[in-house]
Write a structure and sequence with these properties.
The structure holds two protein chains of two kinds.
Chain A (H helix, E strand, L loop, with lengths): L4 H19 L7 H26 L2 E4 L10 E4 L1 H24 L2 H4 L2 H19 L3 H19 L5 H31 L4 H7 L7 H18 L7 H8 L5 H23 L5 E2 L2 E2 H21 L4 H20 L4 H32 L4 H5 L6 H15 L5 H16 L2 H25 L15 H19 L1 H13 L4
Antiparallel strand pairs in A: 1-2, 3-4
Helix pairs in contact in A: 1-2, 1-5, 2-3, 2-5, 3-5, 3-11, 3-14, 3-19, 5-6, 6-7, 6-11, 7-9, 7-10, 8-11, 9-11, 10-13, 11-13, 11-14, 12-13, 12-18, 13-14, 13-17, 13-18, 14-16, 14-17, 14-19, 14-20, 16-18, 16-19, 17-18, 17-19
Chain B lengths: L7 H24 L7 H19 L7 H6 L5 H15 L17 H32 L6 H7 L1
Helix pairs in contact in B: 1-2, 2-5, 4-5
Classes of the chains: A mainly alpha, B mainly alpha.
Chain lengths: 487, 153
């Protein structure tokens, strides 16, 4: 039974999503409980899955019984199992948070909840896929549902959803073009099979061009600077109820897809036309981390600030995984998990501020009346995590990336991590300067917040600290999976 | 907004063409087991026949009731597809591994035959429903989300 876990993890949200129009046709009020229930089942399955993978090694799932490289293969290894658990847990908390801020029209909308479940199913498939074309399919499932969710509120959001759709489709086309190059050069789409066939011909123009197309396509999806321009607008205008889910998962999972390709196809020290590929990727990460952080610093709108913060962290993760040594790689992957949690927390806080106080910008924050201690507490925890202070997980991720950079002798990368920390500190100082403004009426009782909001904010704050406390064991089992030739 | 067509020639021809198109759609779906055809193409032809009925008789006419009914079936095709895959998993195999589709008194080849046919039926239903949904949402103002609105009502 345990060998079915990867497919079950995909089928639970998928089944719930496609049966929604039939189950909820006469009772639209069951949409929300059904969605949350399905994701809760996923979390349980993901925990079991992680335990099975840690104890029994990676699960290779041959769909239809056709073994790779002929059939479509899914690979459920340590990294996939960890990321799937992160995604499903973050999705569950985001949905619980969404109960508070979701507009009544969307709360009873069947298509809205089906889209959420299909998005989660697509992300799970994207994480497990070990086949370049399968990655494309799930990339599009996740992206198309993402466009629709961004525009779900209509009005101005539709414009940004449409721009996201145009750029995202351009990225998907580039990705597919790259896949076609690799397929023409090798005759296979399976990643493990490609990894054995590519090294001899990787410097050929066709293969190098194909890898560049794939990277460009995925860069748009993961919002790597300078291809990030769709992200702040899209996430600023997305419905408050799904913004945490979108911001914390979509770009990260696209990055995971790239990490799988990079790890299996680009060996450390590889040079194409005297350009060391991994160092080039690392420099792109450096640019993204610095520019994203600087852009976050000059924003006045909270959601845009957080969105640019996410853009800068994508750069940090790319630095980590491109250092070419296990320490940096594991640091990057561990930071990715933390970043998913932190982005969800940031957009929950921003969404709750809009919902309860109508506050969107820093100026609004300054004039804000008394606010709930739950919001203040969660903001402090997430600020500590974003800046990267112990005991939150953010610190241990950055620490391992810096160690990896020093191990590789890349001082620019190490400097960038520190500089981005300072930039992050800069914009959180701006937020706190407005947040703890003395002139606000401190005597009045704060407006009480809904129980769901307390649960989601509390749980996500606890998980940020828990990730830090458990960082040692998480980093250790990630390292072990690398030594075993995983990913 | 599409209005019913009042030409006698169009309406009479529609009565002849639509059933034939639907029969042909089923034929293509089943013939996909032996040659060119299959669920996607069959579904497109079925959708075309229903869209033709909407174009000729209008959405509210008695003759278009099939098209109005099927838009409620959003997701049904995918459910059939995933359900067959799930049955294979219950039988102990991987998703869509028809060897493990437990049907009594059938040899392995027949199991594969039935399994593929069932998934193709799922694909056909899904494509047909999607085609009709797209046609309705593009052509009728004020009914932005026909499936949603229909299921709410």
């Amino acid at each position: 039974m345990s060998s079915q876990l990867p497919m079950l993890l995909f089928l639970v949200p998928f089944f719930a999503g496609v049966s929604m129009p039939i189950l909820a046709a006469r009772r639209p009020s069951i949409c929300q409980p059904l969605t949350i229930g399905a994701v809760a089942v996923m979390v349980v399955l993901a925990i079991v899955n992680l335990r099975v993978v840690l104890n029994g090694g990676p699960i290779e799932y041959a769909i239809g019984g056709w073994a790779a490289p002929l059939g479509i293969a899914w690979l459920d290894d340590t990294i996939a199992a960890t990321v799937v658990l992160t995604i499903s847990a973050v999705a569950l908390l985001s949905l619980i948070f969404g109960r508070v801020v979701v507009p009544a029209r969307l709360e009873r909308s069947i298509s809205y909840h089906t889209l959420i479940l299909l998005l989660i199913g697509g992300l799970v498939g994207l994480i497990f896929a070990a086949d370049l074309f399968n990655v494309f399919v799930f990339l599009e499932v996740a992206a198309l549902t993402g466009y629709a969710l961004v525009g779900a509120q209509g009005g101005k959001a539709s414009v940004f959803a449409f721009r996201y759709l145009l750029l995202g489709s351009f990225g998907a086309t580039l990705y597919l073009l790259g896949v076609a190059h690799l397929y023409a050069a090798t005759g296979t789409l399976n990643m493990a099979d490609l990894a054995t066939r590519l090294p001899q011909i990787v410097t050929s123009t066709a293969v190098a061009g194909g890898l560049i197309y794939i990277f460009l396509g995925l860069s748009i999806k993961m919002a790597l600077v300078p291809l990030h321009s769709w992200l702040p607008d899209a996430y600023e205008n997305a419905p408050e109820a799904v913004a945490p889910l979108l911001a914390s998962t979509v770009t990260k999972v696209a990055l995971v897809a790239w990490v799988r390709i990079e790890y299996s196809l680009i060996v450390p020290g590889l040079e194409v036309g005297h350009v060391p590929v991994l160092v080039l990727l690392e420099e792109l990460g450096v640019i993204a981390a610095l520019i994203g952080g600087a852009l976050a610093l000059i924003q006045t709108d909270l959601k845009r600030m957080f969105a640019y913060g996410g853009v800068s962290h994508i750069g940090l993760i790319l630095i980590g995984v491109s250092l070419g040594n296990p320490t940096g790689f594991v640091g990057g992957m561990f930071y990715l998990i933390n970043d998913a949690v932190m982005q969800a927390a940031l957009f929950m806080i921003a969404g709750a501020l809009v919902h309860y106080h109508g506050a969107r910008s820093l100026d609004d924050l300054r004039d804000l009346g008394p606010r709930s201690p739950w919001l203040t507490g969660a903001l402090i925890v997430v600020a500590v995590g974003m800046v990267g202070l112990p005991p939150t997980g953010g610190f241990f991720g950055k620490w391992n990336i810096i160690l990896g950079a020093l191990e590789a002798g890349h001082l620019v990368a190490a400097f960038t991590v520190v500089a981005s920390t300072l930039l992050t500190l800069g914009y959180f100082v701006r937020i706190f300067a407005c947040w703890f403004n003395r002139s606000a009426g401190a005597e009045a009782q704060p407006q009480p917040v809904a129980g769901s909001l307390r649960v989601s904010l509390g749980a996500i704050s606890v998980s940020m600290i828990a990730l830090g406390l458990m960082s040692d064991s998480i980093v250790r089992f990630l390292l072990e999976s690398l030594a075993g030739g995983g990913v | 907004m599409i209005h019913p067509h009042d030409s006698a020639i169009v309406r009479t021809l529609g009565r002849i063409v639509i059933p034939v198109a639907q029969l042909f759609g089923f034929y293509v779906l089943v013939f996909g087991q032996h040659g060119p055809g299959g669920g996607f193409v069959g579904g497109v032809i079925l959708a075309a026949s229903m869209i033709l009925a909407i174009l000729i008789y209008g959405l509210d006419a008695h003759d278009s009731r099939l098209a109005k009914t099927v838009v409620h079936g959003d997701g049904l095709g995918l459910l059939i597809f995933a359900g067959v895959g799930g049955l294979c998993m219950i039988g102990g195999g991987q998703f869509l591994n028809y060897t493990h589709l437990e049907i009594p008194n059938l040899d392995e080849a027949s199991q594969h035959y039935i399994g593929i046919l069932l998934t193709q039926v799922g694909v056909a239903v899904d494509v047909a429903v999607t085609g009709v949904s797209i046609a309705i949402s593009l052509s009728f103002e004020g009914a932005d989300e026909p499936s949603d609105e229909a299921s709410h009502g």
